[in-house]
């Protein structure tokens, strides 16, 4: 089987995960105009096998600010062990847990065999990544050679509710919050997730300036990609952009169908779909 792509941004919707998400899963499904349904990990693995794609699974934790207990990282590790041909796992941490979060990052690498940390969502987790209090976390991730993936730009969390459920958008700005840590941790691989509207240009600038910073193109229908994003993907940032769907928000079918209408060069398409992710994840 020749691999066609690595979907860099996928969330589980199995029974355990949906239960842990509680009301939040309903709000997000509503926002995307979807019905909330569970998909077992075996079904999801089969769907990706049929697409000849692999998937990077991620979750997030904001237990200190929301009181919502996330599915333990052991769950994602178990899912990866069950379908190692398809899944690659990232671990979730709540930065406000400090030393506990730092130890969890270490455990994700050493015990759980996960490949990264994410999705961190500064807006929803109510933290600024460049706050020095969180630097020990990025230091640990760098030491463990874990990729760290941050949500950037507009977020579905809270969208369409009064006050956006209290979440503020500015923490999702790439500059300075992600640019600072990319500068201060040159050995850390950072992914700024999503086209980062309304700060798309900032994401592009950081990716162009810092070789350790990548963009995943997930969670945003490619037909709405800003023209400058398409131009950068097709030229100077062709080695820095990663295919991602943000399933269940978007399906890989919709994403690729729309992406293929953007006039991306075939050799660039292959990099975005596959080769760049392989390099970021250090896959053979
Ligand atoms: Zn996100």
UniProtKB/TrEMBL annotation:
Pfam families: Amidohydro_2 (PF04909)
Species, as recorded: Streptomyces albipurpureus
Keyword Transmembrane: no
UniProt superkingdom: Bacteria
Name of this protein: Amidohydrolase family protein
Bilayer-crossing regions: none
Keywords: Lyase
The keyword Lyase is annotated on this UniProt entry: yes
Stretches assigned to the Amidohydrolase-related domain: 6-283
Record-linked InterPro entries: ACMSD, Amidohydro-rel, Metal_Hydrolase
